[in-house]
Amino acid sequence: MNPRPTPDQLAAAHNTTIPDVIAPGLDVLFSGINPGLYSGALKQHFARPGNRFWPALHAGGFTPRRFAPSEQEKLLDLGLGITNVVARTTARADELTADELREGGRLLVAKVLEYRPRWLAVVGITAYRTAFGFPKAQVGPQDHRIGDTRVWVLPNPSGLNAHWTPAGLGEEFARLRAASRDRRNR
């Protein structure tokens, strides 16, 4: 279990960054919008207890059990990684400007071209639309590629995203999992 950050640790985490969990040739590179203060304080992706990323990852069949954020490095052994559209931590994603998201999208493209995952899964449709300039994009597989990398957009797993239930998130993660295993999608 993760230790709970103190208020001072949370305040100190503002505008910091956390390291990517990344390696060349991953099956799926998940990209969050940006790390929250809780994640920044612990230096772990999707670390806030109410975030549904880790349960959805397991429900979607990517992990053999529900991993804790402190186990994020184990994802590499499964061909998975985590990065963010924007690296800096904020209390809320709505603190990011459209310019920051667009610049983050450009940096994410460069990262994808360098590391060449088979799939990039952006976790957050609104951020994806802004960062990549596709204002009508929907959740699911996208038509565009980044080099040879296919792109999929997943719903934001934040507990603030009430539009998606835990079961619905798991189903959407499972759709990506099936596509990532389908040899026709290579």
UniProtKB/TrEMBL annotation:
Its EC number is 3.2.2.28. Coiled coil: none annotated. It is an enzyme of class 3 (hydrolase). Keywords: DNA damage, DNA repair, Glycosidase, Hydrolase. This is G/U mismatch-specific DNA glycosylase. It comes from Amycolatopsis melonis. The keyword DNA repair applies. The keyword Ribonucleoprotein does not apply.
